[in-house]
Amino acid sequence: KPFKRLLLTGAAGGLGKVLRERIKPWADVVRLSDIGDMGEAGEGEEIFQADLADKQAVLKMVEGVDAILHFGGISTENTFENIMFANIQGTYNIYEAAHRHGVKRIVFASSNHAIGFYPQTQVIDADDPPRPDSMYGISKVFGEQLSRYYFDRTGIETVCLRIGSSFPSVNNPRMMCTWLSYDDLLEALRVSLLTPRVGHTILFGASNNKRQWWDNRKAAHLGFQPKDSSEQFRADVPESGEYPPADDATFNYHGGKFIFDGPMYKD
Ligand code: NAI
Ligand code: 15L
After folding, report:
1. Alpha helix (H) ranges present in 40-181?
2. Residue 7 parent element (H or E)
3. How many CB atoms lie within 10 A of CB 182?
4. Is the pLDDT of residue 212 over 60?
């Protein structure tokens, strides 16, 4: 197996539960971490329940691991304070612990909300500046820049996977563009972990959908080739003839409805 011990944060979450089952072939031991309950450790698993904002706990969490899939944190819009502890301080703690313990490779679960305020009429690539659509998106931009800094300063390699919408199926027209199947998510993680040199790479995480807003040519060295397509859900999400519909802002931005949250979020 390519790794002795792989750490997965966010293991109790929607994607964490999927990954828990499917990353076992990559490591002798998978260390699972979350603030929430993860049940019992199965064969080849270690459970480490902790708050990412707790630096001492994160230092222990990262000890002895070869690589990290950092999926833990708040995954939608929330108050700045909550985002600050879980996502900003939490991601800092992961990188600082990785540096101190000599971890060489991290995959950071970034999000399309780091660039969510681009209009859907614009195709972008990894060199286009971030354009976050929410406090949540800002925390992902922070993680992307923090990981770039740790690469430049310490050599820890990171792939920032800007996940579109990774769910079992598609249920709105925007997701026809943003959908990332679980199989394609796994493939994105596989190439991110196993490509010999990744430096600091931003990879957009979408399946091989018919319409694309995200150009992955700047991450060509990873050789990510998504296989699935949202077209299988086409009949479930008929689009109007007019695109984007001029009167509905959720169809106007890469980030969809997240643009309505941000500073307006109510405690
Ligand atoms: P989720 O909300 O189901 O899972 C996140 C997990 O992080 C939860 O189990 C939660 O308990 C844990 N967590 C939250 N705060 C924590 C803290 N302070 N300390 C330790 N653990 C904490 O989200 P999901 O969908 O599984 O997403 C996983 C990651 O992927 C997140 O970082 C999210 O931002 C990112 N992502 C997911 C997308 C998707 O389509 N599912 C799209 C873009 C990004
Ligand atoms: C995200 O970043 C969220 O974590 C996820 O729950 C979805 O909202 C996804 O983006 C999306 O944009 O569909």
Report:
1. 55-62, 80-83, 90-101, 135-154, 173-178
2. strand 3-9
3. 17
4. yes
How many domains are there within the chain?
1
From 64, 54, 71, 65, select the one nearest 12 (Cα to Cα). 71
43's tokens: 């064969």
- 232 is in which domain, residue-wise? 3-264
pLDDT value at position 219? 98
- CATH classification of the domain holding 144: 3.40.50.720
Q: Is the CB of 73 under 6 A from ligand 1?
A: yes
For residues 111 and 145, give the distance between their C-alpha atoms in angstroms, rounded to a whole number.
13
Mutate to test the pocket of ligand 2, among 15, 70, 74, 75 (most ligand atoms within 8 A of CB): 75
- E-only strand ranges, 42-172: 45-49, 67-70, 105-111, 124-125, 157-163
Task: Ligand 1 pocket test: pick from 75, 93, 140, 261 the residue with the most ligand atoms within 8 Å of its Cβ.
Answer: 75
Q: What is the pTM of this model?
A: 0.96
Q: Atom 4 of ligand 2 has which residue's CA nearest to it?
A: 75
Nearest of 158, 160, 150, 157 to residue 126 by alpha carbon: 160
